[in-house]
Write a structure and sequence with these properties.
97 residues
Length: 97
């Protein structure tokens, strides 16, 4: 059995999935009547996608502190890296697209 404890890749995958799942849950709860890609396109059109992603990326703080308490520093590095990827995406959406 593969052990995923204290691995950079585990933290990276988790850090990328948490905000994506949060955005999907927001979509399901608030706008279930439209498709997911239409939801993304509409929020980008009205310039709300970058703030939504910013709020979703804040959920990585919970994973960060959880793994920090367990002293899984490689996993923490993965979560931080994923958060930086989201930060670059948010900057791209906000200022370029």
């Amino acid at each position: 059995m593969v052990q995923l404890a204290n691995k950079f890749s585990g933290g990276l995958v988790l850090g990328l999935c948490i905000p994506a799942l949060a955005l999907f849950v927001y979509f399901i709860v608030i706008h279930p009547e439209i498709g997911f890609f239409a939801f993304i396109a509409e929020n980008q059109r009205v310039r709300l996608l970058s703030p939504l992603l910013s709020l979703a990326a804040l959920l990585n703080l919970a994973a960060f502190y959880f793994f920090l308490q367990k002293k899984w520093f490689k996993t923490v590095q993965g979560v931080i890296s994923a958060t930086l990827i989201y930060a670059l995406l948010i900057l791209l959406l906000k200022f370029v697209l």
